[in-house]
Amino acid sequence: MVSVDNRIGNLEDEIEECNNGSKVNEFASVDISTSRKTFMSCENPERKFQGTSNSLPNRINLIKFDSPSANFMRIATEKDKISQSVPSRSPQPHCLKESFSGMFGEKLDWRTVKKMGMEWFRNPINIALFAWILCVAVSGAILFLVMTGMLNSVLPIKSVRNTWFEVNNQILNALFTLMCLYQHPKRFHHLVLLCRWRPSDISTLRKLYCKNGTYKPHEWTHMMVVVMLLHLNCFSQYALCGLNLGYKRSDRPAVGVGICISIAIAAPAVAGLYTILCPLGKDYDCEMDEEAQVQITAAQMQEPRQKPFKMKYSFASKDQRQVIENRPKWSGGILDIWEDISLAYLSLFCTFCVFGWNMERLGFGNMYVHIATFMLFCVAPFWIFVLAAVNIDDDDVRQPLVAVGILLCFFGLLYGGFWRILMRKRFNLPAYNFCFGKPSVSDCTLWLCCCWCSLAQEARTADHYDLVQQKLCSKDPDQPSIRPLAREHFVSTKSGTSSDRPLATLEEEHSQSGKDGIMNPPIPSLIQREAP
């Protein structure tokens, strides 16, 4: 009987031979047991591992666990295989890039620059972004002048300079913290999509992170790096906000503030450069992507021919008698909030939840992202500016900061107005022109003056119609807004005689034919006996 020490020694010798590059043949299994009642098997030990050429590496894997980097590479390889099976959409040129190339190609056209600027300012998000940039620029400039001593002649007293420094420092801290809070729900959603990595998630993330929205080599790994850097930016800004709000200037740790500022600035900068320099920002002619598209095209060609027939005449079926509304209308007036009692109470007491739910079913994004973002727009400015005012000793500055926080919370309702504008434009809904004759300004005014009434109207409108392929369709099958012509209810046969059967019956008969075109006998329910 072989002792335990000898067996362990033999196993270590075999592992050393494998590491030295020598060829290791199949070896017998070694049963280690301290009991004398256990005997070695009488079978030929070579048969146990017959057909297993890499038995020693398998044993090593049992002894040693995979490192985190190896696990990450394995997951990245699996994700890349999934992404290769998702075809890319046809690349679309960037409109802004084309506009700049045409504008600066020969000479600077100021009319084109003015036109682009006016179009940019028509977007409410761009207006808010411009106001944020302007506030950051003014506060940053004042803070820089105070730090460098350029305002010593204007502010000769040191305590006054310290007050100006702290005020602008708290304003900048609040502005950058609010921007991170507003962006963080989307970044969390992108992280969830990366972890889930379904075909629809891949297409969504490609539009955001890949150049031209096409497949890139190892795109999951590169997207994960960018998303994690953006999360690092948010968390470092939150840490900096905690230091600024939790400590007075004299007690604030300078090392912690410097580290947080460095990470908060470097993380988004590195993420932007990485997106441009890594494969996400380059053009690739991927053969795998072309093969996937060819396979999908071939699969579509092999589908039964009755499917296009059904799609073409789907309005004739009994269950899908829906007609697209070219000019839909709002369901009720703006003040008809009590038209639906349950929806009215939900709009009053669950405003954020109803808004997110309504946006998701209309195809405007994820429900949870809308709920979190809308809540942050309406709540976060008050708390950020109130906490910032606590660290300021001047009462004349505290009250304006609190007032600014309340005002920003009120203007947070413009988030609902922005999505109302997109809803009206996408579905061609009637516009309100009571505010300076501008529909967009009127939509924002409705949300500022009566957000609950506007939300209830939008939810009632979504209930009144069905959403089919990003179009609103009437739910009433008996009174469609667009009726088919009389001749469209009947189809003439090849012999030239008219048939009195509707298209729905022909569709059912067509579905009875096989894939090879051979007609099958109709089922008894389709056989109609003619009257004598």
From TrEMBL:
<feature type="transmembrane region" description="Helical">
    <location>
        <begin position="341"/>
        <end position="359"/>
    </location>
</feature>
<protein>
    <submittedName>
        <fullName>Putative PLAC8 motif-containing protein</fullName>
    </submittedName>
</protein>
<dbReference type="Pfam" id="PF04749">
    <property type="entry name" value="PLAC8"/>
</dbReference>
<feature type="transmembrane region" description="Helical">
    <location>
        <begin position="223"/>
        <end position="247"/>
    </location>
</feature>
<dbReference type="Pfam" id="PF11204">
    <property type="entry name" value="DUF2985"/>
</dbReference>
<feature type="transmembrane region" description="Helical">
    <location>
        <begin position="371"/>
        <end position="390"/>
    </location>
</feature>
<keyword id="KW-0472">Membrane</keyword>
<keyword id="KW-0812">Transmembrane</keyword>
<feature type="transmembrane region" description="Helical">
    <location>
        <begin position="254"/>
        <end position="277"/>
    </location>
</feature>
<dbReference type="InterPro" id="IPR006461">
    <property type="entry name" value="PLAC_motif_containing"/>
</dbReference>
<keyword id="KW-1133">Transmembrane helix</keyword>
<feature type="transmembrane region" description="Helical">
    <location>
        <begin position="125"/>
        <end position="146"/>
    </location>
</feature>
<feature type="region of interest" description="Disordered">
    <location>
        <begin position="487"/>
        <end position="532"/>
    </location>
</feature>
<dbReference type="GO" id="GO:0051762">
    <property type="term" value="P:sesquiterpene biosynthetic process"/>
</dbReference>
<dbReference type="GO" id="GO:0009975">
    <property type="term" value="F:cyclase activity"/>
</dbReference>
<feature type="transmembrane region" description="Helical">
    <location>
        <begin position="402"/>
        <end position="422"/>
    </location>
</feature>
<dbReference type="InterPro" id="IPR021369">
    <property type="entry name" value="DUF2985"/>
</dbReference>
